[in-house]
Design goal:
The structure is a homodimer. Chain A contains 14 helices and 17 strands. With about 425 residues, chain A is of the alpha/beta class. Chain A has three domains: about 5-170, 3-Layer(aba) Sandwich (Molybdenum Cofactor Biosythetic Enzyme, Chain A); about 175-255, Alpha-Beta Plaits, CATH 3.30.70.2860; about 260-414, CinA-like (Maf protein, Alpha-Beta Complex).
């Protein structure tokens, strides 16, 4: 199996001005090509540090991919440094110079003199055209090692990778396939989940790794084999085993999110849902409608903070609000019924609670009541995130809980 | 000047499952503390690779910060590996064990046996409490070097950094003060903004750096001096100069977001706003209510996808929908008026458009009409993000445009 390391070049990354999305993108691509990514690093626009990084990476792996430092300014030093480290000579390529000049003339501009250096190509390297920028990329191969230099702007880097680098890697360095499946759960903690599959965590191929994100726990199951079919065959029994152990905590495999699972379920059953939100304040509607095609299952959303609005928009009875308070099981149920009735949706879902920061005197931050109403009747559940000073987290996880309750309600009743 | 390197630990980062936002956050913090960040690296859950990474980092800098690998599962190996590399012994801390147990009991759960290892503390290290998770952090100091281990989940890491790590670093490793001010704009492109301040970009102390994020352009102004007062004095004239050049494109300085600026304006003027959203589908309500205290200025939100709902919830006339279509200036105006009238808010804001992916046959993806209605009357603006296949981006930037229009409407009329 070929091994790879990423080197991101740019002082702006070390200052935190820029989020390094290139590293995630290239990491995913390497995994899908069956190339083992062992290490990522970021260095500034500093020839000394970059060349020592290149040397230590070369000692560990056979493919290096660098991003950034191919611009026209004097502090762009990646190409020069890589050439020096590998002993390649730079020479100007007139065809590429013409490309760069036309990039400017097409925009009615004259090419600044600085950009000419972007047409200097490592002699004997494979060159990758830049179809939406001026800096070409290249692959420098020597002694069975390969250093691929790519531009830093994500748009240019991704386009170049898709058009030129992926085909190059497949033809030369991709042996076998690595496939990962992501088992996504809600309602079970990472350690509890890991406990239920602790023996599987020791297996090697497929490997099973737990991780947690935004109040959800995941298991990543990864298999490598010489063919996709063989890798899939390795995954199958392990996934089945995991399903039997985590049962209905699993909302999907390789899903992007809970809302994707819910939208899929709603459309399968031909149902439309409506949402009434207090503390989550539109978060559920926003997340449901992140899913393309959600318009066929999303009826409407009502964001009602004040009691007045709960009565005006959702017909929650003032008596209920007075007697039980706005944060109560009864209010949650009436909100869910209200939004279902005014919208004519099949199912109404409601949330009323305390997002924080700080409790509301009566209830702790992170507590909410989540209501569901359908033709079968209505109910509400009390839910606590258990987090303090975590308004965004509390809102997100409370919205997730509501989505998961809706998911379970559909599975149970339709 | 002290130097620092970051080591992110986690195979999920090498597989591209997770975007490394911790690295950006910590890089910014180091810059603001005047600690020179030289290098970032990411390694998998692999003791051998992690310890060699630690060794080479220690040979280059005097502070290492690791994130990740402090979880309860067997593949969480950061603490053990760092202790071995630096020669620290782990011993169980009963007080921290009690904290972890109560973290579960507060949620009506029993602590899984796996979590006990999170109470193992490097003997003689400074320990950082985790106020929103179970894994404590620590600072291991030896021979003038310091290794700080932090949990991987961004929420836990950031809270721990704010509560414990920043004060620790200031007291021990921060010489002099570096202050940054963030000038935030909306409605002007990064290069246009940079052009207007091009001469300032060359200055050294304060330095002025442009950057762009999520459809907004920022200027980071950074001054370093031996005291906070002196650094502030250096910043003052430059900020004033920038203000005069970018004028009302600036929505705030050191604000977190447009919604923070809007909520501040609304509360200053004692106004309440209501929102009617189609393509942004709750995103504006969600963002406004991210701001603590927004309940005093946020009246309600209505998320209406279908024409039926626009009429039912917002009294948009069926004639208007039929004649001009749901994505039109006229519909936007009636949505804004409708949500203002039903809610009794001072100002109504509406969005109707095409989030994508793909155009809707008539209008391109990313086009929307944004309506504003107040006692002074109503109007709508046509807005285009100009991006294809960028549903999330289009929704976010369209919501930002609506917030900016509301900001300008308040400044002009109240």
């Amino acid at each position: 199996m070929h091994t790879c390391e990423l080197i991101s070049v740019g002082t702006e990354l070390l200052l935190g001005d820029i989020l390094n999305t290139n590293a995630q993108y290239l990491s995913r691509e390497m995994a899908s090509l069956g190339i083992g990514l062992l290490h990522q690093s970021t260095v500034g626009d500093n020839p000394g540090r970059l060349s020592s990084e290149i040397r230590s990476s070369l000692s560990r792996c056979d493919i290096i991919i660098t991003t950034g430092g191919l611009g026209p300014t004097p502090d762009d030093i990646t190409k020069e440094t890589v050439c020096e480290a590998l002993g390649f000579r730079l020479c100007r390529d007139s065809a590429i110079l013409a490309d760069i000049e036309s990039h400017f003339t097409r925009r009615g501009k004259v090419m600044p003199a600085e950009n000419a250096k972007q047409a200097d190509i490592p002699e004997g390297a494979a060159v990758f055209k830049n179809s939406c920028g001026t800096a070409p990329g290249a692959a420098l191969e020597k002694d069975g090692k390969c250093v691929i230099i790519l531009p830093g702007p994500p748009r240019e880097m991704k386009m170049m990778f898709n058009e030129s680098v992926r085909p190059f890697l497949i033809s030369k360095y991709s042996d076998g396939v690595i496939i990962s499946r992501n088992v996504r759960t809600f309602g079970i903690g990472e350690s509890d989940m890991a406990h239920r599959v602790s023996d599987l965590l020791k297996s090697v191929n497929p490997s099973v790794a737990p991780y947690a994100k935004d109040g959800e726990a995941f298991l990543r199951v990864t298999a490598s084999a010489e063919s996709r079919a063989k890798a899939e065959a390795l995954l199958l029994p392990v996934i089945a085993d995991i399903k039997s152990r985590l049962s209905d905590f699993i909302y999907g495999i390789d899903y992007e999110s809970l809302q994707e699972a819910v939208v899929k379920l709603l459309s399968e059953k031909g149902l439309r849902a409506a949402f009434a939100e207090s503390c989550t304040a539109g978060y559920i509607s926003k997340r449901i409608t992140e899913v393309p095609g959600s318009s066929s299952v999303f009826e409407c959303g009502a964001v009602t903070y004040s009691n007045a609005m709960k009565t005006k928009m959702l017909n929650v009875s003032p008596k209920t609000l007075e007697r039980f308070g706005s944060v109560s099981e009864q209010t949650a149920v009436e909100m869910a019924r209200g939004v279902m009735e005014i919208s004519g949706a099949d199912i109404g879902v409601s949330v009323t609670g305390v997002a924080g920061p700080g409790d509301d005197g009566e209830f702790p931050e992170g507590l909410s009541f989540i209501g569901i109403c359908g033709a079968q009747g209505s109910f509400a559940e009390r839910f606590e995130t258990g987090r303090k000073n975590a308004r965004e987290y509390n809102r997100y996880v409370t919205a997730s809980k509501a989505l998961d309750m809706l998911r379970r309600f559909i599975i149970k009743n339709y």
